[in-house]
Design brief:
- This protein is of the alpha/beta class.
- The protein has two domains: about 1-145, Spore Coat Polysaccharide Biosynthesis Protein SpsA, Chain A (Alpha-Beta Complex), CATH 3.90.550; about 155-414, Hexapeptide repeat proteins (UDP N-Acetylglucosamine Acyltransferase, domain 1, 3 Solenoid).
- The protein is about 20% helix and about 30% strand.
- The protein contains nine helices and 41 strands.
Length: about 425
């Protein structure tokens, strides 16, 4: 059987806080995660995954693939960068070679006798590429690699269109569509099994496809304008505006106005409030009236602070990046280009800082108290409300992230 291995490299750090709790290839853009999209292109192929060691057991829980261990295969292995958007698959068969773009490994096609030299830790080391150049044939390639979370937001709308055309292809109306639902360009609308769409809803696919998964509930008088992706078991509240580029992960509950925003699985934004050009992690709860700005008053490019450096994103529209397990109080207002860490609790009537370190608890008196056990208790409670239980491996990763983020908290305190 042919074999591939999807790896993450040192650039995962650019995707923090979103990548603290998952490999970069589990981030979604368009209809699929990077991992799912790559796997779709390699049917009847053995899949292996490389990730950071502290994520090993947690990733193994989520997937049936081999993690951080290449299974024996006499035909060798094709290593694929997990940040790669592949329009067509790279051939598994062929001569040994390393595909490189801008001193980054895009892929490596390696015979089994040489595979032992390829480990998860090696791919995380930028110096590894110099070792490979000495041992293997190097081919310069042109490829589409994402480098920051705002890359995902920027290409999300077009990727929904591309994924729909490549893998869904045609519209299909299933479930219960009540009388009084209006569909524009029905051939570009897909609704899954047991999905219910209540009267007064408008689904407009004139500017892009609409994909709605299984067991979705869309309440009355909501407007959905494609391109849009809505995952399985999502609840959309009445009078919602789910607009171009909205990308909502499974078992999430949303309402208000959402535009060009990716929301990972199991997160809530149930009430009124604008959420635009943002990326939200899993197990997030945004309180009623939480809003973000996605455009500066100068109409210039948005700058973000990422721990110890400020980066000009080159984007005119950019809302916020929010890590897993973060919560906000009612009427929280985030400025353009805000970065909010993992497991934060924002309880402020004034505008929160543009950069919020992971595990921060902010209130109006600016108190900050880091307590991983308290944060774990909150995380467990939210998961239980979705009939999910945090596993022992999940707890270990949670605590590992707390240790990893100590430096960013100290830096911010100083």
């Amino acid at each position: 059987m042919k074999s591939i291995c999807i790896f993450e490299d040192g650039t995962y750090q650019n995707f923090l806080p979103l990548a603290y709790n998952r490999p970069v290839y589990e981030l979604r853009c368009g209809i699929y995660s990077f991992l799912d999209r790559i796997v779709l292109q390699y049917p009847d192929t053995e899949i292996n995954l490389f990730c950071r060691e502290y994520l090993n057991n947690l990733v193994s829980e989520s997937h049936s693939y081999s993690v951080n261990n290449i299974k024996n295969n006499n035909k060798g292995c094709l290593f694929v960068n997990g940040r790669l958007l592949m329009p067509t698959p790279i051939s598994v068969s062929g001569k040994e070679e390393i595909g490189i773009m801008d001193n980054t490994i895009v892929y490596a096609r390696i015979l089994m006798k040489n595979c032992r030299a390829f480990t998860p830790e090696k791919f995380l080391d930028q110096g590894f590429i110099n070792e490979l150049k000495k041992k293997f044939n190097v081919k310069k390639v042109k490829a589409r690699l994402v480098h920051y979370p705002w890359d995902l937001i920027d290409i999300n709308k077009e990727q929904i269109k591309s994924d729909f055309m490549s893998h869904i292809k045609d519209g299909l109306i299933q479930g219960v569509i009540h009388e009084g639902v209006h569909m524009i360009m029905e051939s570009q609308i897909f609704t899954g099994k047991n999905t219910v769409i209540k009267p007064g809803c408008v689904l407009d696919a004139e500017n892009g496809p609409i994909y709605i998964g299984n067991n979705v509930r869309i309440s009355s008088n909501s407007v959905i304008e494609g391109p849009v992706f809505i995952g399985d078991n999502v609840v959309i509240q009445p009078l919602s505006r789910i607009l171009t580029g909205a990308n909502i992960g499974k078992v999430s509950k949303v309402g208000g106005e959402i535009v060009n925003t990716i929301i990972q699985d199991y997160s809530n934004k149930q009430h009124d409030g604008f959420l635009g050009d943002s990326y939200i992690g899993s197990w997030v709860n945004l309180g009623a009236g939480t809003v973000n700005s996605n455009l500066t008053n100068t109409y210039g490019t948005v700058k973000v602070q990422m721990i110890d450096k400020v980066i000009d994103t080159g984007q005119t529209f950019l809302g916020m990046i929010m890590g897993d397990h973060t919560k906000t109080a009612i009427n929280t207002k985030f400025t353009t280009g805000s970065i909010i860490g993992f497991a934060c609790n924002i309880l402020m009537t004034r505008t929160p800082p543009k950069f919020t370190p992971s595990f921060s608890w902010y209130s109006d008196n600016a108190t900050r108290d880091y307590d991983v056990e308290r944060d774990l208790q909150v995380a467990r409670r939210m998961m239980e409300r979705r009939d999910k239980k945090m596993t022992r491996n999940g707890e270990k990763v949670f605590k590992a992230i707390f240790a990893l983020t100590e430096a960013e908290r100290k830096l911010h305190d100083n």
